[in-house]
């Protein structure tokens, strides 16, 4: 596993000959914030940076603190795009607007998602709203940005995308419950089935896109334990309470939790080191191999989940 010093040095050595376009979906706090700040620092501000999310005030504060563009290129983009990912239509609309403005898209991090104990909450698009934010809208964002990433790859520029979730924590998926409606609505027993499947969904998403665009890097990342405001900002009162007593409930957490800044360095390192195709990385940016080990139905699960995702996302008209 690389040390933090190695990750920082590698990130600092990345020196593209073009001005990269970077999109941070869910970059208004936590892990996304750390990655965006590391990216701006190592490009010395010489990049177009777009933060996508719901919290304009938080995004504006982050953008204000980022490394400023060089004096020679003061017109580089520093922008917040409001997007509520609980609706797939918003993801599709926002991705299309980005590609319309930036013909090449180079770096994409998708860290959006929140923890809730609300249970099943089916929105107007016919899917659970939390599932939309954690999976379908990520899928839609990647799909919508593909024209820009393909153009970047054709020009021999970086074309890299990473979904941050729980790489390495997956399990077999229930092909009779694609979309996880039964699991989400199944109480605590459903939650136990839900979490490993969500991890596998992210693996299979990366693999599915990589099968179709072999010149682009598609990653699933698991940063591990990071000191973020995820629980504090949860819509669940129970989970918000857990945030304030987390070190009493989990006494080793204080010593294991990585800072947002260090996490940003490691996750940026992981994506910049990735080769074209699908891959996964852990908390120190180390390659952890591919998913599906021991799952004889993995290939079939990938095929059926792709068809399901294509159908759900394609049915949303914007």
TrEMBL record:
GO MF entries: oxidoreductase activity
Keyword Manganese set for record: no
InterPro entries linked to this entry: NAD(P)-bd_dom_sf (IPR036291), SDR_fam (IPR002347), Sec_Metab_Biosynth_Oxidored (IPR052228)
UniProt superkingdom: Eukaryota
Keyword Oxidoreductase: yes
The protein, known as: NAD-P-binding protein
Entries under Pfam families matching the protein: adh_short
Entry keywords, A to Z: Oxidoreductase
């Amino acid at each position: 596993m690389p040390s933090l010093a190695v990750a920082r040095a590698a990130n600092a050595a990345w020196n593209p000959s073009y001005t990269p376009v970077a999109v941070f979906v869910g970059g208004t706090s936590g892990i996304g914030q750390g990655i965006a700040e590391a990216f701006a620092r190592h490009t010395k501000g010489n990049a177009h940076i777009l933060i996508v999310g719901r919290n304009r005030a938080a995004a504006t504060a982050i953008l204000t603190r980022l490394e400023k563009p060089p004096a020679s290129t003061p017109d580089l983009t520093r922008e917040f795009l409001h997007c509520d990912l609980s609706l797939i239509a918003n993801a599709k609309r926002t991705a299309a607007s980005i590609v319309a403005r930036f013909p090449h898209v180079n770096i994409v991090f998708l860290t959006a998602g929140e923890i809730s104990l609300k249970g099943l909450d089916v929105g107007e698009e016919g899917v659970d709203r939390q599932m939309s934010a954690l999976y379908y809208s990520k899928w839609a964002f990647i799909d919508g940005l593909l024209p820009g990433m393909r153009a970047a790859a054709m020009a021999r520029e970086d074309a890299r995308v990473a979904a941050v979730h729980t790489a390495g924590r997956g399990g077999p998926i229930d092909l009779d419950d694609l979309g996880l409606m039964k699991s989400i609505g199944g109480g605590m027993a459903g939650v136990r089935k839900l979490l490993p499947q969500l991890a596998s969904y992210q693996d299979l998403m990366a693999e599915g896109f990589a099968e179709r665009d072999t010149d682009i890097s598609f990653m699933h990342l698991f940063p591990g334990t990071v000191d973020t405001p995820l629980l504090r900002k949860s819509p669940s009162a129970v989970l918000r309470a857990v945030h304030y007593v987390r070190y009493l409930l989990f006494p080793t957490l204080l010593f294991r939790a990585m800072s947002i800044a260090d996490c940003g360095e490691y996750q940026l390192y992981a994506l910049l080191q990735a080769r074209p195709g699908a891959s996964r990385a852990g908390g120190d940016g180390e390659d952890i191999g591919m998913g599906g080990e021991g799952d004889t139905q993995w290939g079939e699960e990938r095929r059926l989940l792709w068809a399901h995702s294509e159908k759900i996302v394609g049915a949303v008209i914007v």
